[in-house]
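Suppose a classmate hands you a notebook page containing two proteins, each written out with its sequence and a corresponding row of structure tokens. How would you begin to make sense of it? This section walks through that situation. The first entry is reproduced here exactly as it would appear on such a page.
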Amino acid sequence: MPQTFDIAIIGATGTVGETLVQVLEERNFPVGNLHLLASIESAGASVPFRGKSVRVREVEQFDFSQVRIAFFAAGAAVTRSFAARASAAGCMVIDLSGELAAPHVVPEVNAAVLDALKTPVQLGSPSSSAVALALILAPLREQLGLVKVNVTVAMAVSALGREAVSELARQTAELLNARPLEPRFFDRQVAFNLLPQVGKLDEQGHGSLEKRLVSELRELLELPLLKISVTCVQAPVFFGDSLTVSVQTERAVDLAAVNTALDSAEGVEWVEEGDYPTPVGDAVGQDVVYVGRVRTGIDDTCELNLWATLDNVRKGAALNAVQLAELLIKDQL
């Protein structure tokens, strides 16, 4: 009989949590018992899995010794409250919140990190933007010599959870029906608009998501001194992050070699010149990062510019986390 593993998903009723359940089923992950956990407000709901309805229970009362792997997809506060308890119970922890001081891993980029870890392992699944940039830039590190990365991230509202998705839908409906708009989740109109600030800023004017991206990308690429400039913009898009990327390089860019490297990179779909990818119609629902508009600088041969887009909830979060779990059962369990 094939070996199975009991799994817990904390934040099971959120956008990422529900997608984790879907990806586990689609990839035929060897799940024994699936425990879906959430706050007391969400307990009692049901989520479909392999033809059955799995009831969501309250995380406060859960005994983590029942499971081998726990996905934390409910935000930083929940991770702070329960991850240590899970590890103490001998459970492998995969954190999607960015809260834990654990190795961050994108399987296509730095899976070798797991070789040095001892059980029970804690792993961080990076932010969606860090996943995308690592997949794109890792194949180009040696070829180009990365000096500085400038990136603007157009973030889908689903990065902030189900409440943000509902807010964009509500605002859109109100505007289309010529009703007065009252912002609730966001501090101003997000529908048909762009907000050049996501979350609160520190004293230097940087957001936590921007700083998280810098830290994670340096770690993933094993380039701790890489200069990275980030601006996160809230876009009126439900699902699908998009990035404009400009890379300063040590050597002149060989565009043909860059395109060849991207075309063969695992987890990347290169879109050749004459076309371009978008979140809607290309990236949403897919398991790759789409890259297009690859070009050198207008007057700088040591500059590479490109556009990228990915499903932030699926490829950028749930799929990466499940791939980490697949590595764990292969190498650690």
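The notebook's second entry, a different protein, reads as follows.
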Amino acid sequence: MKISKKDALTWFRFFAALPEDEELLTKQTEIVYAAMYQIEAAVEAQNRALIAGIPGLKSLCGRTLYVGPDDRFPAGCKSCLLGTGLSAVRRTNRCNIQCKFCYNYGELDAIPPIGEGLWEIGGTRLYERDLDLLLSVQKKPTGIAYVYLEPFMEIEKYYGVVRRFHEAGVHQHLYTNGLLATEENLRALGESGLDELRFNLGASGCADSVIEAIGVAKRYIPQVGIETPMTPEFYDAFFKKKEKILATGLDFINCAELHLNDNNLPNYLGENLYACRLGYISPIWSRQLTLRFMRAAAEENWGLAVHDCSNMTKLARDLNLKSKEGGWFGASGYACEFARFPYEAFLPVLEDDGFQFIGEEPLPKGYNPGELY
């Protein structure tokens, strides 16, 4: 059904007022899905218009979009989208800052530890000395990523593990907000064999010290770039310091479409949201800012790769991973991250007179208020 915006708003106000433990009827669920489709269809139409204006747009085997030189597209993303997926290596359960877009916002003091001396690899806790056993028993991945939360809180513990995976020929990338990066620890990471370092420049508001650290990192690490959730704050801060950032010689900028969960959603209530394939929920402006960002990079020839790491890219990632794991046709771990769908969070977009559905029809008989039993 092509539900009207007015009818969707009426029903969503009702759904938002329901007790949390009350389940929707089947027809009510159809109404929710119809409204989500209408919102997503309108968003995709807007995005297609923006994509059409990007010169030199490229695709990585139909799985993601980017602009710029092919050889500067991050190898870690190729591993994620084409190889055996993104194998997460976890160690540090602390962070030195709190960002409103963080998926652990509000719970940073309660993140479970991995364990003294231990590393979590593929959900299994291992000591560094266990890596030889792991690599001899299981097929090594095309790449791994060091995540969870700020590795530079204890970066000296990472060098040995990085060195062992480097010797095994596994591509490695690591995420950091960069505030604790120094020439000493960046050099040590490079000497240990880290292939790729990604700075969340938006976490620091494009701090000058982090921009300088990007330039230092380029002297020691083969690929260095930025990976940041695309927000209006990052977009504005980047363009104020664009020349200084580009002068670091970085290789790529991954513009991640910001998606929300129970932790960070309260920081974005009131924004126009949409759900991609009934999965990740995001502010509409996030990917649209990315597409404008990519257009500027292409038109101004920044000389680096700018990657549209969108919700659709995340879907492609999860389809690829399940395929490599031997999953059935269509299997994916991509899904909505809310235990209870946040109906109230979609009231702003449905109340926005400037946001229009593409086509509308009256509700079928039996779907209007008072007709459902």
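A careful reader of the second entry would note: The domain at 53-339 is CATH 3.20.20.70 (TIM Barrel).
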